[in-house]
Amino acid sequence: MEDNFERLVDALSISPLSIDVLVKLANLIEQRTHQSDSSFEMQALLILEHWAWHRLSYDSHKWINQSKYRSLFHALALFNRNLILNNENIETETKALLLMPDTEDQINWIFKEINHIADDNDPFIVLVSLWLDNLAFFICESPQFDTLPIMCHTNQYIDRKYVITDQFKFYLTQLEQDNVPQVIFTKKQLFYIKTCSFLLGSYLVAKPQNYIFIAEEVLDHIGDQYLKIINIHSYTMASWSKELTICITYLTNLVCICCCWSGETSMPIKTLFSTEQISNDLIQGLIRIVCYESFHEEIQNEQLHDELSLIESILKFFLIMLQTQNTSYYFRSNIFLPEILLTLAESSSHERYSLCAYAVLGEILTDEKLKDLKFTDSIYAFFLNLLEKGWHHPLKIFKRMPVIYLLRGISSLSKCDAVQQRVADGHSISLFIEMSDEYPIAYDIIWAFSFNKDIQQQLRSNVPFMSKLIQLAKQSENEQMRKTIDGILWNLELNHENHPIDDKHNKKVFDIMISYSHNEKVVCKQIYNELIKAGYRVWIDFDQMHGNVMDAMAQAIEQSNTVIICMSEQYRKSNYCRAEAQYAFQRERKIVPILLQKQYKPDGWLLFIIDQLLYVDFNKYEFARAMEMLFKELKVTEIANINTVNVELKQDTLIIPLAVEVSSSKLVLSPILPEKISDWTQAQTQQWLIQHNLVQMSRLLVDCNGLEGIESAQTNNIDPKRSQPRQGLGINLVDPYYAFNPDYMGGNMPNVPLYQDSLDPNRPSSCRCSCGYMSFAPPIPCMHAQSCVSYCLQMYPGHCTLINTYGCCGSSCRYFQSESLDNRYCLCNCAGQQYLNPVDQCTSSQGCLTKCLANFPQICIPIATQACCGQDCKSYSQAVADSCACRCRGNTYYPSPKCMNPEGCVSTCMTTYGDCTYSETEGCCGAACAAYIPTCSCSCGPEFRTMTSIPCQSSRSCVETCMSSYGACTQDNTQACCGNDCINGFPSCTCMCGANTIITLPMSCGSAEQCVRTCLQSVAQCNVANVRGCCGSDCAPFFPTCQCQCGSGVYYASITCASAEQCTNACISQYGYLCSPTNTIGCCNGTFCTKRNRFLGVSHAHTFQSA
């Protein structure tokens, strides 16, 4: 067979060329292609490929009309496609020799021939498109060859002569029609839109320095038309022809690549998205395409096709928009997208598409949401599998995916705490250590992972790697790599965490340090200038630090009183920013957070650090107003630094609990204040608030004296027994933890440990606690840090709160965790005396009130008793004995209605507070408490309703219970509820009209098309351009259909229409006597309507636009 192939190739040089040779070569090549066998003798194959390029370029007019020639060229093009995509055993250099043209002259002759062809469907255009498409595929797989002179010449010619031309824009204009006629799709049009876009896009991926145009010019030329095409056709995927799919696919790919093609002063994506609305409209259109279910079926197909390429391009486009634009909030507003992306990732037979889908999920989901979806294990297993196989492949690829591509995909996910923990549990950090020598990006991933305590320990125990890091930090010539390695070593260094904190009275060089992501450099420069004008000494890194950036960062924090954290999505994802913020937090610097990204909500580690702090929202207010609020916040910080007088205790000192605050070694005297609060000055008011750990309240009352503070409390109707919304600084959130601690006016309490326990379980240690500015050492042995937190909360209630208590047992330390709520005890404060019974565990202060009155009847009388359950405290009143209290997800609430039983309190709280769900609510009526146990209820038709006694966990299980227990309940009429969670047993219509309108209609349905029509009639926000109707899980957009008004009735004809006249005839034919020639108005697409004239006939019909 090999000799046969070689003899046939040799015969190509014999003149005249035998047609029989062409036929045999074509058959042999087709056979090898179908067998995925490329094992021809390479020298003979090289001769054949070069012969083909020569024939294509110089004398195509002599053979192009001969079918045998065309068959050979077509067969060889398909063979080359298979060679590129399915033959990893052939070296890329060999493929380049086979596939590249010999000279630039050959390319020039080919383009010259195309330019002179008058027939837009000439077969020469078809063959050239196939060969140039193969070049594009090859460059996609092997981008290192993109900078060869022949490729630069080819793509610059394409850009100048085909893409940046009026002809290209004309072809795009043809695609801007609602119903694109098939006749417009010619071979020349597809050469322009598919082949030229594909090859140019592949070239631009390498970001060539000698590119004659900048990407902005390409986007400026085609961008507006591309946006229109997506906006028009993203509603009608079901009617797309193969050619339209091809055009949209490769246009999307080119626009996507142009948007990420950037230089020092270039930001092409801003050219495309001149306004936020344009950005949102494109995102919504692309989401509609991704959500189209028929494309999902194609993704499971193992063969590559245009639908797959389209989905991949869109997902990459999503990544670019998420990483460069403030669009994450808009993606997150689409509640269906995460589930669809997860389905794509898990069902695709092509790993590169799964990789893109997982990467987008990693961008749009918060850390908490990633945990809730519980697919962290899937992501971890997926990436680890691909990385291991790609790393151990001789060419460092896996199924055409280079290892560097895989590493870029996991780089974003590496910032997720759940992924970090999964890597730690699987001891997989060694794989990234192994890859770091060849791929520097692995060091950045290791840095992100090194914020995890378990991974830190694994890295420290790897002595060779630690030695290599230390050596590289000193000797590496790559400055960026040195910075990354400094960051890893910083995280692994133990000394900076336990280093004694400088005395706060030491003089600082700077008043403020600004910690920010360089994406927000412009606005941070404005803030810096305003602070300097106001007289502050400010440290900020504008030019990016050189040398050991971590030491420079630490020195800046040490020399600053206050750190302003500029919050954004990029800030949370930055390893540098995380290290800065965490060090400032550890060194107990005053932290003032500001929000710079629109719609961003802090999550993950950033939420933990700033959670209890008020922040200034620079997006909600004009810059000048936001700066006023920032100055006010900084002013509070200055007041909070007021010095207190420290007096050493003498041995015979009499300690009076109400006059002093005691630590293990020092006595801090409270300031002497006027007896009447109304006589307090502004400074005295601030002193008292800070002295009592009311730092957040001090921010609210920064400009108030005692009288103004009273008036402010009265104006805002502050009730110390109810959870209050935060006031000021651009936020308005209900603080659920305020109910536990009325002195607290900050944000939600962190629910994660700062450090992990690492104690010998058989060896008790001593406790110590830090509560705000106070330190305590309870004389109690401990086994873990959490017990110390509980002890301090109970023993020092005047100072230690759920928010400010940091307990240490030996060297293991924690902040308060919600688990400790399960082990709280009653504390009775009766006439100034406190009684703690460690046997009386509690869930609410109301239960403790009853116990205090019962256990200490001689001292605890109703008018002089206060009871605390942990930090949840209440004074006794007659109303308390029969009032409600609820505990929901660790929060305690006190609704106003009086109660008869705890079950009634459960119902009241579930309807009053958003975090009180049927599975997590405990209600108390006085001292009697009960948890909510939901049961099934059934509603089957208009006449049958019943409440069962069967406990349930989901409404879906109740559907089965209702239908199996009651004959009146059938598949078509059953609505079942598990507590407040209800679901229809029968499919119902859901209308999705635009990005934010999702309405479920109270009706059963038979098809998605039926729901589309019902949505258009019943929901005001729905129109033919934005509607998508779902019957259960079956969804469909609006398709042009016939609607007729016949007299007073409206009817639909079961056809897809092209004209109003067609609808008029269809309705007359389908509905007979109801729709007659004299009373029928037919509408196609609900816009243009025609009334049939009984005398003139349809051809002379009166046409008018529907109202």
UniProtKB/TrEMBL annotation:
Pfam families: TIR_2
Domain of life: Eukaryota
Stretches assigned to coiled coil: none
TIR domain segment(s): 508-638
GO terms, biological process: signal transduction
Protein name: TIR domain-containing protein
Source organism (scientific name): Rotaria magnacalcarata
